[in-house]
Design a protein that fits this description.
The chain is an alpha/beta fold. The chain has helices at about 5-10, 60-70, 80-95, 110-125, 145-150, 165-170, 175-190, 210-220, 245-255, 265-280, 285-300, 305, 310-315; strands spanning about 35-40, 100-105, 130-135, 155-160, 195-200, 205, 220, 225, 230, 230-235. The protein starts with 5 loop residues before the first helix and ends in a 6-residue tail after the last helix.
């Protein structure tokens, strides 16, 4: 699609020192002191069960899928105590560490997130380190994290938000839009683009294409600064093309109303929407989508056709029973 992945974006970032000019010195063996960047998945502990997620990335989704009889794996995926000690030792010895990227699950509810931050604060390393993490902002009191974050050189907060209002609550069950927005407004008070940075990373998919323009407008500015957006391409059943063509056309028309800036990469989202518009609907994939969606809807007491009535058109066109 011509859209840059997170890896490509990171490789171009000056802090990661990968594409710098001049001669680079490569070593056959690395010491702990050579480590400048650590990317760590904390586990799958999560308080949401998002529709496009997987059980290995969400403990709540794993539990729900197990209750629905469609997941046989572990519900809780975590590092062993031995591995945790090794990881903490790695952070302790990486005295020249500059950047940390933490993933989950939901990092802000994982105890290991606090253990790592507290260790780095205690050793004094934190003042030289930038922390970067994804969060769903469905925590009870976002301000309770500020005391720890203040001890770090920079803090980059990327919020995983896939829609606004009813669309958000349908995708990111059992998350509540009002709770997220309250945390967002509270968080926005400290965003200064010097020490604290904020961005939004929606997963662009068929069940939020109609709502993406509303989401961008809802969060376009954070504390008077343009909010950065990174539109993630979908993989799995909720393919972007499995929606009436007119919905994609309207989404593209709306996106043209937005400025194409560094913060809002309009070109990226238009490429994804355009590629989906050109792709024909595969009937088997569509039936698979409706089958999975129906299962989640019944389990969660939600309804696709109430959230996005345009899906009735596809059900009628392809002879799929509605619920």
């Amino acid at each position: 699609m011509g859209v840059m992945s997170f890896r490509e974006v990171a490789n171009r970032h000056k802090n990661y020192n990968i594409n710098t000019t001049g001669v680079r010195t490569f070593k056959k063996e690395l010491n702990f002191e050579d480590i400048e960047y650590i990317d760590l998945t904390l586990g799958n502990k999560c308080n949401l069960a998002c529709r496009m997620c997987t059980p290995t990335s969400s403990s709540l989704l794993a539990k729900q899928q197990k209750d629905m009889g469609i997941w046989q794996g572990d519900v809780d995926i975590d590092h062993s105590d031995t591995d945790k000690e090794k990881i903490l030792e790695l952070f302790r010895k990486a005295v020249n560490l500059k950047n940390i990227y933490m993933l989950g699950g939901e990092p802000l509810i994982n105890p290991m997130h606090f253990e790592i931050l507290d260790l780095l604060i205690e050793t004094g390393q934190s003042k030289n380190i930038e922390i970067f993490f994804n969060t769903n902002l469905q925590v009870n009191k976002i301000s309770s994290y500020y005391d720890r974050w203040e001890k770090f050189a920079r803090v980059r907060i990327q919020a995983s938000i896939d829609g606004s209002g009813d669309c958000y609550e349908y995708i990111r069950y059992p998350g509540k839009w009002d709770k997220l927005y309250k945390n967002y407004k509270e968080l926005s008070k400290i965003i200064d683009d010097k020490k604290f940075f904020f961005s939004v990373s929606p997963v662009l998919q068929n069940i939020n294409a109609h709502n993406m323009f509303d989401l961008v407008n809802e969060m376009r500015y954070t504390n008077g600064r343009e909010t950065g957006f990174f539109f993630i391409p979908i993989s799995g059943p909720n393919q972007l093309n499995l929606v009436p063509k007119r919905v994609l056309e309207r989404a593209m028309n709306n996106m043209y109303k937005l400025p194409n800036t560094q913060a809002i990469p309009r070109t990226d989202i238009l490429r994804q929407l355009s590629a989906a518009h050109k792709k024909e609907i595969n009937v088997d994939e569509l039936k698979h989508l409706f089958n999975i969606t129906k299962g989640y809807d019944k389990f969660r007491k939600q309804n696709l056709f109430e959230m996005a009535p345009h899906f009735e058109e596809l059900a009628d066109e392809y002879g799929i029973e509605k619920w």
